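Backbone-to-sequence.
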């Protein structure tokens, strides 16, 4: 039986408040990239088990998280909460249209 890709969320929330939120973003990015979990894990340089753990909201080490994000074309941005709230509309626009002027 052929493996199915997870469904794509066309409007994911890019704000991460938990490991579960991060896992949902990673799974969505994998689906957008049309990658099976074993192919995505190989591309990222981690095991399928590590990628699966993250996608299911289980903790992984920071070095593995950064490998996964980099491999899937994602970046981690940290900033003070007050700035995140101010930048939320701009960041959301950039997520949907990278040509949006900042």
């Amino acid at each position: 039986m052929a493996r199915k890709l997870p469904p794509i969320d066309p409007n994911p929330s890019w704000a991460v408040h938990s490991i579960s939120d991060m896992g949902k973003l990673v799974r969505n990015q994998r689906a957008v990239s049309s990658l099976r979990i074993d192919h995505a894990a190989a591309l990222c340089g981690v095991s399928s088990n590590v990628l699966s753990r993250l996608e299911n909201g289980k903790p992984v080490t920071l070095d593995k998280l950064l490998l996964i994000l980099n491999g899937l074309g994602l970046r981690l941005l940290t900033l003070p909460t007050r700035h995140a709230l101010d930048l939320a509309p701009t960041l959301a626009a950039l997520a949907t249209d990278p040509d949006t002027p900042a």
